[in-house]
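User: Here's a structure from my thesis project, written as structure tokens. My advisor, Dr. K., wants to see whether a designed sequence matches the one we expressed. Can you design one independently, without my sequence as a hint?
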């Protein structure tokens, strides 16, 4: 990495970062772990004995051997024998089938005993759970990219074992961490009225912290590591990061760019990185070029496609997303997918795809070349839209701004599986029952108010499929796409409309002709609608009740006859 050679840009960067701060919640929501130091150690007989002897300060130690000794070396066996003597009073079990679930302070462990599954903590230490788990097996008991706090898988790695032996005695007491993610069920497209919809968030959590409980997306705050992948994948913004909130992050990016542009006549590149491995990688550089504004996040996925495009619209010449060897593979896959969509959109509107770039920390020596290339990009006008828009409106405002400054394209991009697109309706099948509009979480589908009609606006549609599955006539088709024409995308379309059916008694419009015809045809042979009673289906709700009571008054015994 070359030294910075532009003092003006260096000074602009340093002053911008010093003068603009992210406005965080001073009393963030947190979750607590409470531990007393009850430890479960699982693995080969010799290794767990040696580890247990090193952890005599723990409140309790339970040993589960999953296999025999790993080495017959005489010196090793002597150490094992000494450790066995020191730990002979500890509860010890042998089982090749061990399972664990939970988190710091609340781990449940199960073993197979004579073919039956047995919960270990109540039997071994007379407690409902363990506080900590030391896993010394070759294959981890928990196969997750981000492991729950309090679980240490060390295998036969001496360095990991030494680190675990040092940390375990310190994990006694109460520990707090942020509740990283919150859910707005009002706009969640996961489930409604017995119909399953969107599951995008559940497919991308590297910590397995999300599940559907009673048909509601639930985030387990004890398992959540704050990776941000769920919030990036959520098409409606129902799942959002809490520290910082989307509005706070966008506000910071907008103000940071605004201040830099006041101090420099050059456009900056914004480099998004995580606050741990990414921060360490940048710190190892001799000097970060002054044209780069680094923004530290809990994880890089906290800022998604909407933030990337908004950052360009607010004055950045380039957005660089820094990943590292520690970025979970699930999160990395999501970021790559978002990046592919970003480059597709930029190319479609006539802009350089390199305006948004993924960069691995191992390739930081490419940074100078990337900056040299982006320095030649034409400057985009700075957008005026604010920070308080929804996630989806932020994305489209940014895209429309960039498109308007470039080629002004109005094509429709057919893109499979994206959470954007159109709804089409077979007008011959649709009866305007409004099941679809009633379930639409974003109000992309709406009724016609006083007139029988189904209306659709493309921009809010997240392609969740609730409308398609709810339609009793199977008249709805979804098409995943991105409409570049802003007017067309925001226009209210009438997908189906009909003349209203007027009550045959009072003349009040109360349904559509298609619905009334369908009901009268379907119920014509039903005993409850024999004779003149069938006409009640052609009456509004008030006249229907009046007619029914009039009929009963005229013939009180009629309702008793079968």
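Assistant: Designed independently from the structure alone:
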């Amino acid at each position: 990495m070359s030294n910075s050679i532009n003092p003006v840009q260096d000074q602009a960067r340093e002053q911008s970062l010093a003068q603009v701060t992210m406005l965080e919640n001073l009393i963030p929501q947190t979750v607590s772990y409470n531990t007393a130091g009850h430890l479960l150690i699982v693995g080969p007989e010799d290794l767990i004995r040696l580890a247990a002897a090193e952890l005599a300060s723990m409140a309790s130690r339970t040993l589960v051997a999953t296999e025999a000794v790993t080495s017959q070396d005489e010196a090793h066996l002597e150490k094992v024998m000494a450790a066995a003597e020191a730990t002979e009073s500890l509860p010890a079990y042998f089982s090749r089938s061990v399972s664990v679930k939970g988190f710091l302070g609340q781990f449940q462990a199960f073993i197979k005993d004579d073919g039956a599954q047995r919960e270990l903590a109540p039997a071994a230490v007379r407690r409902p759970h363990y506080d900590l788990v030391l896993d010394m097996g070759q294959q981890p008991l928990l196969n997750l990219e981000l492991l729950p706090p309090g679980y240490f898988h060390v295998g036969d790695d001496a360095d990991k074992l030494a680190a675990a032996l040092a940390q375990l005695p310190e994990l006694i007491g109460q520990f707090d961490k942020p509740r990283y993610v919150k859910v707005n069920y009002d706009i969640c497209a996961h489930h409604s009225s017995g119909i399953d919809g969107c599951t995008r968030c559940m497919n991308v959590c590297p910590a397995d912290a999300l599940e559907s409980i009673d048909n509601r997306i639930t985030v387990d705050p004890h398992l959540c590591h704050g990776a941000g992948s769920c919030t990036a994948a959520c098409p409606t913004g129902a799942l959002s990061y809490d520290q910082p909130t989307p509005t706070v992050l966008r506000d910071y990016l907008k103000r940071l760019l605004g201040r830099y542009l006041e101090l420099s006549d050059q456009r900056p590149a914004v480099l998004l990185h995580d606050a741990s491995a990414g921060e360490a990688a940048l710190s190892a550089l001799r000097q970060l070029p002054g044209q780069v504004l680094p923004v530290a996040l809990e994880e890089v996925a906290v800022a998604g496609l909407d933030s990337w495009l908004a950052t360009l619209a607010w004055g950045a010449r380039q957005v660089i997303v820094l990943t590292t060897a520690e970025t979970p593979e699930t999160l990395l896959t999501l970021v790559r997918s978002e990046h592919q969509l970003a480059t597709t959109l930029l190319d479609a509107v006539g802009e350089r795809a390199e305006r948004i770039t993924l960069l691995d920390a191992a390739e930081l020596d490419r940074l100078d070349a990337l900056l040299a290339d982006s320095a030649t990009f034409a400057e985009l006008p700075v957008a005026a839209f604010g920070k308080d828009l929804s996630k989806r409106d932020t994305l489209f405002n940014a895209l429309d701004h960039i498109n308007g400054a470039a080629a002004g394209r109005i094509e429709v991009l057919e893109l499979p599986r994206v959470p954007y697109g159109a709804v089409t309706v077979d007008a011959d099948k649709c009866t305007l029952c409004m099941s679809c509009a009633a379930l639409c979480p974003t109000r992309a589908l709406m009724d016609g108010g006083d007139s029988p009609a189904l209306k659709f606006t493309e921009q809010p549609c997240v392609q969740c499929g609730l409308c398609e599955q709810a339609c009793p006539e199977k008249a709805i088709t979804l098409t995943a796409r991105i409409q570049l024409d802003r007017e067309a995308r925001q226009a209210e379309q009438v997908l189906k409309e009909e003349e209203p059916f007027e009550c045959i008694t009072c003349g009040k419009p109360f349904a559509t002709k298609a619905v009334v015809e369908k009901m009268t045809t379907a119920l014509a042979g039903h005993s409850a609608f024999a004779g003149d009673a069938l006409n009640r289906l052609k009456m509004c709700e008030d006249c229907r009740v009046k007619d029914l009571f009039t009929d009963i008054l005229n013939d009180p015994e009629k309702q008793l006859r079968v």
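When you compare it with your expressed construct, this may help: The chain has a mean pLDDT of 93.
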